[in-house]
Amino acid sequence: MELFGERGYEGTTVADIAERAGLTKRTFFRYFSDKREVLFSGSEIFEGTVIKGVLDAPAKASPLDAVAAGLDAAAAIFEQIPDRAGKRQALLDANPELQERERAKLASLSGSVAAALGERGVAEPAAGLAADAGMSVLRVAFDRWTDDPHGQDLRKLLRDALAELKSVTA
Amino acid sequence: MELFGERGYEGTTVADIAERAGLTKRTFFRYFSDKREVLFSGSEIFEGTVIKGVLDAPAKASPLDAVAAGLDAAAAIFEQIPDRAGKRQALLDANPELQERERAKLASLSGSVAAALGERGVAEPAAGLAADAGMSVLRVAFDRWTDDPHGQDLRKLLRDALAELKSVTA
DNA sequence: AGCCTCGATGTCACTTGGTGCCATCAGCGT
DNA sequence: ACGCTGATGGCACCAAGTGACATCGAGGCT
């Protein structure tokens, strides 16, 4: 993050990162499959939290509400580190390459969420559609939150975005 | 496509492609910014068709229905070349790199659709959410269609997926 | 202690995607 | 015939990855 802050993402080579970390380029690639991956290291934890939230949602909750419960549970992760999240977001915003990866991660998350909904007895394609809808909601809420991390809290923004979605697909 | 069919996407180098086309690697990169891009060359036409469909939808159509109209208009493009679409899909399915790009294209399309909805008087975040929802519907329908390109027609699959989405977010 | 194994790291060579820079060439208007 | 311009080739170069092999250090075993 230091290096990215100084020289930007593109301007920083893997060799630079490795050197700063006291490693070799080769070793870097043993920890991260990609240069991009270094910015997505916490994503498994996030994903796990979301999934747990989905599975723990009340049995009578609708698929979409179960997804919302999962996102709500995970929102806390970002709220603990608003400034780090903000810097990361600035990097993503400046790099199409990173945005692609971000989308891919969301897509993977969507897949896992759909699987979790499956365990709750939701069939396809409903599960996939509900999961995707959740990702949309997450993106909208997260964008607004990063615009102003100390304004409204992320969980409220999530609730608002969800309500908006429901009204738009009514 | 010949080369990709023989050696797969990864197994084919840009130099290979260029040679087969009677060009140089350097010239290839003047036509395509990326190796990936070569598989997404028609996407502007597709995007244009969708946008036109959205803008031409009846004024009283809901945002989501306007998006659906756009997708419906563009479905014809794929239905004209089902086998080419199928081969392309097989390549995408086998390559995370290409899936990332595909997602990025869909995201870009979503952005344009949201803008088109904006021209129709739909405000944010409703426009963005409706556009994203449309992308979900498109993916579901398209997946089913590529599973069996000569089964149900793509437009019917789109209608079905849309109905499913509406019921899931009800 | 001496030895062995194993996992983590370093080293090096190599491939490939991608870019900058300049040369070349073909068409075209004058 | 001259010069301009846009497209292409050629070349050198950088950075991301990868494969193969050497090295080293922490234990475990006798």
Question: What amount of the residues of chain A lies in strands?
Answer: under 5%
Distance between the termini of chain A: 43 Å
For the sheet with most strands of chain A, the description reads:
none
Shape of chain A: globular
| DSSP strand tally of chain A | 0
> What is the overall number of helices of chain A?
9
Please provide the ordered H/E string of secondary-structure elements of chain A: HHHHHHHHH
Quaternary form: homodimer
**Main interface: chain pair and counts:** A-B, 30 and 30 residues
State the share of residues found in helices of chain A, binned by percent.
over 70%
Arithmetic mean pLDDT of chain A: 95
Using the CA coordinates, give the radius of gyration of chain A: 18 Å
Structural class of chain A: mainly alpha
Indicate the low-confidence ranges of chain A by residue numbers.
Answer: none
What does this protein structure show overall?
Chain A is mostly helical. Chain A has helices at residues 2-7, 14-20, 25-31, 43-56, 63-80, 82-93, 96-119, 126-147, 154-168. In chain A, helix 5 (63-80) packs parallel to helix 8 (126-147) and helix 8 (126-147) packs across helix 9. Chain A contains 9 helices and no strands. Chain A is globular, with a radius of gyration of 18 Å. The model of chain A has no long low-confidence stretch (mean pLDDT 95). The interface between A and B is medium-sized, with 30 and 30 residues. Chain A binds a DNA duplex (30 and 30 nucleotides) through residues 13-15, 23-27, 29-30, 33-35.
